[in-house]
């Protein structure tokens, strides 16, 4: 009887919806904001809203009101061009591989500095103990200050945040593979149909 009156939330999602939600969580880890609560970097928020509308078209479900008048072509072009400009897919790919590496190391550090170099495709990961938090923060600030000119993304991730998300997503721990596959299909279709030159 100890569970009498206990309220639970039950979410029923399609596979696409789950892939989208997992990618949003991963994006939130990268931006250190709650994207799922509509907080944080507007570029990421708008990108995920557009992708959700493309997924809605695919599943024959209602689009977000702000995109109801947009054609699928226009949404695909937006998705393609913004991904090329801001490297959302590359960032998600790099984070996916980094998180696998962190898990294999059994979270032996408190903080991880992740530097994703888009030009070379190189991902640098450096771990820091709890007492080295100031050093990690300084290194993060230094890398971040050159991020735009050097075409790279910089993320400083706390192991506690990773573990919390691990508990929330036990079966698909931030595996954005299928979400990335869907994005790459959209981008390929844009190229094949010549939308990107429009």
What does this protein look like?
The protein has about 200 residues and is mostly helical. The protein contains seven helices and three strands. Strands 2-1-3 form a three-stranded antiparallel sheet, sandwiched between helices. α1 packs across α4 and α4 runs antiparallel to α7. The chain is globular, with a radius of gyration of 18 Å. The termini are far apart. The model has no long low-confidence stretch (mean pLDDT about 90).
Q: What kind of sheet is the major sheet?
A: 3 strands, antiparallel
Overall shape: globular
Low-confidence stretches: none
**Count of beta strands:** 3
> Taking all residues together, what is the mean pLDDT?
88
Q: Number of helix segments?
A: 7
Order of helices and strands: HHHHEEHEHH
Query: How much of the sequence is in beta strands?
Result: 5-15%
In terms of quaternary structure, what is this? single chain
Spatially, the strands of the biggest sheet line up as 2-1-3
Give a summary of the structure in a few sentences.
By secondary structure, this protein is mainly α.
Could you name the key traits of this structure?
3-stranded antiparallel β-sheet, single chain, mainly alpha, 198 residues, globular
What's the SSE blueprint?
Blueprint: H1 15-31, H2 42-58, H3 72-86, H4 88-104, E1 111-117, E2 122-128, H5 133-145, E3 152-158, H6 159-168, H7 177-193
Antiparallel strand pairs: 1-2, 1-3
Helix pairs in contact: 1-2, 1-4, 2-3, 3-7, 4-7
């Amino acid at each position: 009887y100890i569970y009498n009156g206990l309220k639970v939330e039950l979410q029923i999602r399609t596979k696409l919806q789950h892939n989208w939600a997992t990618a949003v969580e991963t994006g939130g880890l990268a931006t250190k904001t709650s994207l799922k609560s509509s907080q944080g970097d507007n570029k990421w928020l708008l990108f995920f809203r557009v992708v959700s509308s493309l997924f809605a078209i695919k599943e024959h479900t209602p689009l977000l009101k702000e995109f109801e008048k947009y054609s699928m072509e226009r949404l695909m072009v937006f998705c393609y061009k913004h991904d090329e400009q801001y490297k959302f897919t590359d960032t998600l790919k790099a984070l996916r591989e980094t998180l696998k590496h962190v898990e294999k190391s059994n979270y032996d550090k408190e903080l991880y500095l992740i530097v994703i170099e888009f030009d070379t495709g190189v991902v640098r990961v450096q771990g820091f103990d709890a007492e080295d938090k100031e050093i990690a923060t300084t290194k993060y600030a230094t890398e971040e200050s050159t991020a735009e000119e050097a075409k790279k993304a910089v993320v400083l991730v706390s192991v506690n945040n990773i573990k919390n998300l691990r508990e929330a997503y036990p079966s698909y721990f931030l595996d954005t593979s299928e979400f990335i596959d869907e994005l790459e299909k959209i981008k390929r279709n844009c190229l094949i149909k010549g939308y990107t030159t429009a």
